[in-house]
Amino acid sequence: MFEALSGKLNGVFDRLRRRGALSEADVTEALREVRVALLEADVALPVVRDLIAKVRERAVGVEVLKSVSPAQQVIKIVHDALVEALGGGAADAGQRGIDLAAAAPVAILMVGLQGSGKTTTSGKIALRLKGREKKKVLLASLDVHRPAAQLQLETLAKQVGVASLPIVAGQTPLQIAARAMDQARRELFDVVVLDTAGRLAIDETLMDEVAAVKLATQPHETLLVVDAMTGQDAVNTARAFQDKVGVTGIVMTRIDGDARGGAALSMRAVTGAPIKLLGAGEKLDALEDFHPDRIAGRILGMGDIVSLVERAAETIDRDEAEKLAARMQKGQFTLEDYASQLKQIGKMGSLSGILGMLPGIGKMKQQIEDANLDNTMLKRQAAIIGSMTPKERRTPDIIKASRKRRIAAGSGTSVQEVNKLLKSFDDMSVMMKRMNKLGQKGLMRGGLAALMPKGMQGPGGGRRPF
Fold it and tell me: How many CB atoms lie within 10 A of CB 431?
């Protein structure tokens, strides 16, 4: 998400940095380009006007034009304005994430149009509450219109390991909701997720049904699920649900497929409801908290190291990582260790998503795409290692031409790919040996340059300038 907007904004700011001292005309010209970039990213016009007005008011002043680093000051002002537009003000601080501060069972009402990912999101939320919050969750489908909708939610409940309301044919949504709340009270559930029916478009029947269920169940959270791929239609949907039903938060799905991101920037300002969660893929654990400051950082190419560390902490096996660290300190690193690392990286999600959280990576996007760094490559490398014998994985030096042909045939790859893998492993092994030889003090003195191959070092051992 935000790839197109991020690229355009970073182009504007790069030109500002090259100018050094800024005049008021420079700032005005830059803001004109920022305005165009926001509109092209499908941000609602009133939101663009408000954001540009705030930035202009703060940027065209003595504190910027006479600043030691005026371009950086403008970027900081744009960053702060983006955070506000995304719902990062002090008033929104307590509205992030799902609010469970109510007497059990806490009802969460899921609403939205058909095809927005509402049912899948219900399953994701159940998994999240069960794993992170240690809550006992009941899933209930109120969708009696879409064929097999109730069976779909029942299947999702089994996959995430939570209970689902038994299906009783012929009941109305209100009857199902009443039965779900009654079962939750009797069986001491902490949370009930009520998945309502959707329509292909907003109509009175849909709104009346949702409003009736809400009145009957008095949910603590009413979460609207919208598809980020629909752009301004998602904003219009959110506005209609907020006006006619009232929502406490928004979940945006398919953000991994929307390069513009205008809907996210418009949502808070247009509806008044905060974005609480982001769905970034089909996997049931692909659900992220929405942090306005981190999203603003990604848009401006500042990265999102905090989210990357959090994702790593959730997915990486700590015991396995500590064992590997101990082996690396002793200079021991085999292809089995390499395969383990590939597996851990794969758990964290797509490589492009991981790299997108690193500062400044946007400028390298084309090189990354040209290098074909995706999860398919990780799987192919894992397949190659899996086709080796235990002896070959422990002592890869014995892998010569005939063994390479056998490994390539067994993994469904080519000899060239086997060679690339062995070369990557050799490079990593050399780095591990250097780390072991230098020790902590040596690394502190030489930094990353001390780990680079000699061909990559400049005079005196420093990094060669590019």
Answer: 16
Contact assessment for residue 110 and residue 122, using Cβ atoms and an 8 Å cutoff:
yes
Is residue 441 a known part of a binding site? no
Would 204 be classed as within a structural domain?
yes
Residue 112 is labelled as binding a ligand: yes
Whether residue 413 is annotated as binding a ligand: the answer is no
Q: What is the number of structural domains in the chain?
A: 3
Query: Binding residue per annotation — 337?
Result: no
Asked if residue 118 belongs to a known ligand binding site, the reply is yes
442 assigned ligand-binding residue: no
Specify the pTM: 0.66
458 belongs to an annotated ligand binding site:
no
- Given CA atoms 286, 289, 290, 291 in this order, what sign does their dihedral have? negative
- Over the chain, what is the mean pLDDT? 79
* pLDDT tens-place string over residues 434-465: 655 555 454 444 443 443 444 444 444 444 33
Q: At what angle do helices 292-299 and 70-85 cross, to 10 degrees?
A: 130
Residue 254, marked binder: yes
Query: Can you give the residue range of the structural domain that contains 377?
Result: 327-455
Same domain, 201 and 333: no
- Determine whether the annotation assigns residue 82 to a binding site: no
Q: Is 56 annotated as a binding residue?
A: no
Tokens describing residue 382: 């894992």
Q: Which one of 37, 69, 92 terminates a domain? A: 92
